[in-house]
Amino acid sequence: MLPLRKNIAEMAGYVPGFQPEDEAGWIKLNTNENPYPPSPKVAEAIAAELANGGENLRKYPDAASRQARQDAAELYCVDPSWVIMANGSDELLNNLIRAFVGEGEEIAYVHPSYSYYATLAEIQGAKVRTFGLTEDFRIADFPEQYAGKLFFLTSPNAPLGFIFDNAYIEELAQRCAGVLVVDEAYVDFSDQTAMTLIKKYENIVVTRTFSKSYALAGMRLGLAVARPEVIAALDKIRDHYHLDRLALVAASAALKDQEYLELTVAKVRNVRDCFARELCKLGYQVIPSHGNYVFTSPPDGNGKRVYDALFDRKILVRYFSDPLLKHGLRISIGTREEMKSILTAMTEIG
Ligand SMILES: *Cc1c(COP(=O)(O)O)cnc(C)c1O
Questions:
Q1: Which terminal CB of the chain, N or C, has fewer other CB atoms within 10 Å?
Q2: Which of 184, 169, 199 is nearest to 78 (CA)?
Q3: Is 158 in the pocket of ligand 1 (CB under 6 A)?
């Protein structure tokens, strides 16, 4: 027998959304990727970094990501000491657990939300607790003082799409003895953010990803904003060259092109809101969404039936067998044409 740690041997491992091997021929609306390309400035910056036969790649990247941190700090109006860049926001979620949660200590999150928090906590040997939701999308039975080390709040919620308002997030920050991590993976598709609360509450950390609104899932980029003590701790435990040269220039170019971001986000939101209205006309229930996806359920409450029928038509969406989610589907917002195709298919399927 290999001397694997018990928690690793016993854990199941995270199952990401299905990626077809042959992508051509599929309409892929299952992993919340952006249907539009990233800012053209990103490809330009990467091409420049690759100039002279890739001469720059001979040298290590800037281990401290100084330029990208500076660009993010300007955008969020904070000092660069309040920002850390990351190899996808998943790296931050992992390192937050490593920094704050010892073996046997507890993290918590809302179920349903992003179950990858549990996988990361299991690797660390931490305990995992989940809280449910009330009908009006508040956290059910949240204690007056939550004593766990980290509480992960996905806002906007994935897969459901609603968002927690800042008054409620402030209340949660006060009720958390540990750190409140607000995972704002989808917040660019919304009109609000908890970023404005980081100065007021010393236990709030906000994480962002470039995978959704910036259309850079393939580049693996994320960032966190928090007080310098938290950033310094995260800096200690990350791999020292965690971002390669191409990712670093891509991050800077993307952050600096806010005009492009606003344009693509506006298109996605527009298509999302039209799609939601059309689903309602089909008799589907739709939760108003602040992300680039909608959670919707057919009149018979059988998500699997619709998932299978869409799969047969080479349309991929996300179905969760979880009892709280199996009545519906999470459908990522694609191009207008893709959403037209899925609507036609769903009209046939019923
Ligand atoms: C996509 C997603 C992430 C991960 O983002 P990466 O930057 O691609 O690692 C984190 N949290 C939530 C809720 C997500 O949907």
A1: N
A2: 199
A3: yes
Q: How far apart are CA 108 and CA 149, in angstroms?
A: 8
The reply to whether ligand 1 has any atom less than 6 angstroms from the CB of 217 is yes
CA of 211 to the centre of ligand 1 (A): 7
Q: How far apart are CA 126 and CA 107, in angstroms?
A: 7
Closest ligand 1 atom, CA of 222?
7
Across residues 182-197, what is the average pLDDT?
A: 98
β-pairing, 106-110 vs 204-209, is: unpaired
Tell me the residue ranges of DSSP E strands in the chain. Answer: 27-28, 83-86, 106-110, 127-131, 150-154, 179-183, 204-209, 222-225, 285-286, 293-297, 315-316, 329-332
Residue 159 neighbours by CB under 8 Å, 6+ apart: 112, 293, 295, 318, 320, 325, 330
The domains of the chain, with CATH numbers, are 16-38+259-349 (3.90.1150.10), 40-256 (3.40.640.10)
Q: Whose CA is nearest to atom 15 of ligand 1?
A: 185
Quote the ligand 1 centre to 88 CA distance (angstroms).
7
User: What is the distance between the alpha carbons of residues 258 and 339, in angstroms, rounded to a whole number?
Assistant: 26
Give the largest Cα separation in the chain, rounded.
Answer: 60
> Any residues with CB less than 8 A from the CB of 144 and at least 6 apart, and which?
175
In one-letter notation, the amino acid at residue 230 is V
Tell how strand 150-154 and strand 106-110 pair up.
Answer: parallel
Nearest CA to ligand 1 atom 12: 185
The 293-297 sheet, strands edge to edge: 285-286, 293-297, 329-332
Q: Supply the pTM of this predicted model.
A: 0.97
280-326 pLDDT, tens digit per residue, is: 999 999 999 999 999 999 999 999 999 999 999 999 999 999 999 99
CA 97 to chain centre: 17
Q: How long, in residues, is the chain? A: 350
